[in-house]
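re: that chain from earlier
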Amino acid sequence: MVPAEVVASGDLVIFVVEDEVLIRISVCDFLRNEGFSVIEAGNAREALSVLRAYGNVVLVLTDINMSGAMEGLDLIRKIRESYPAIKVITASAYRINEPVEAAILKPYSLESLRAVIKSVLGRQGT
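^ sequence. v structure.
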């Protein structure tokens, strides 16, 4: 699900991949209010299609356990293989051993998510 607004080609984009609709909406709205350009997908397969269309994604925030044939771990591996410059943050109730820039345990607060994203991106403010 690509957002309704068009992301300007020069914007650095955060890509939120989350199958829980309410969580995805909440996170995307929060990040947009924080000044980030955000795109979103509801599953890993959709995410790969969207990644092909956007060349300016700098960070993917992905759930690990998602419905569908492909899960977050598969998505991370595909990102590492095809888009090695993209940073990855996982969001899960479980710890994983996949190499990522950061992991945030669910349930998390939006403020802690902001701090993790800024740390990974090296941003002090928005």
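DSSP finds four helices and five strands in the chain.
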